[in-house]
Design goal:
With 307 residues, the protein is of the alpha/beta class. The chain has one domain: Alpha-Beta Barrel (TIM Barrel). The chain is built from eleven helices and ten strands. Strand 1, helix 2 and strand 2 form a beta-alpha-beta unit. The longest helix is centred in the C-terminal third of the chain and has 17 residues.
Amino acid sequence: MDNTNNISRRTWAKRAVFGLAGAWVAGSRVLARDTSWATDVIVGLQTYSLRDRALPEAIVAMQALGIRHCELWEGHVEPEEYRWQRGLSPQQLRENREQLRQWRATLSMDVIEGIRQQFERAGIRILAYNATFKDDISDQELELGFRVAKALGTDTVNSSATVRVMDRVDAVAQQYRIRVGMHNHANVDKPNEFATPDSFARGMAGKSDLIGINLDTGHFTAANFDPLQYIRDHHERVFSIHLKDRKANQGPRTPFGEGDTPLAAILALIKTNGWDIPTFIEYEYDGADTMAELRRCLTYCKNALNS
């Protein structure tokens, strides 16, 4: 691992803002200063937002959008044909799961190194890798998530995990010294899933300080909890944030600023306190065009931070 991987997120953000991040990118190319961001708050992208295109095209799109930081969605690493999809029969789901398990068993880290190099050449830093850890995950698959994160050069895995699996996750996290942010949805009727403050507390209980939270602000709002207050009270264990707007009471996903999620106030809170909490836009509502909607999301965040 080169010395660049030990640079803190805040140091990287400052270098990127002032056009000095080229020291991390292969070669001597220097990233242009983006003067529209008058803040050190990191606003990156969850690459799931670009799920309508393959990884090379997604990287090109991020460059066009001026994205400098991302959380890499596992769907941009693993084969699309084995991905979970709505509407599949139980038999098809079992077959896809077995095919994915076999693919993971033979995955070479050379492939992951190649992905890392693509991001380096593009001037985009991977701050987190998204991996799913459910109760049925094998020990080999669980460890693979951490091996991939390490090969990508990140110190964080964000996971739509279960409460029960977190003892196993913590053991591997300590082995690799990689943090894990538990990602929440709005399934408050499923106590083994992360959706409530109580489920986060149970997931962290008795665990090392490598176990924390990847707070999805939209889902937290839809579940009728206050993400602004939760971040204020638990910022030391919030490793990163997904920026998403939703209506309360299990309401729909909406364009930024049209739901009940206090996105502008959340960004202002992080900025005011100087907290080292990267945020990732996760575009998930129904929009006309992915690039147009992502520009809309970015404009909202820039206006919120520059006001």
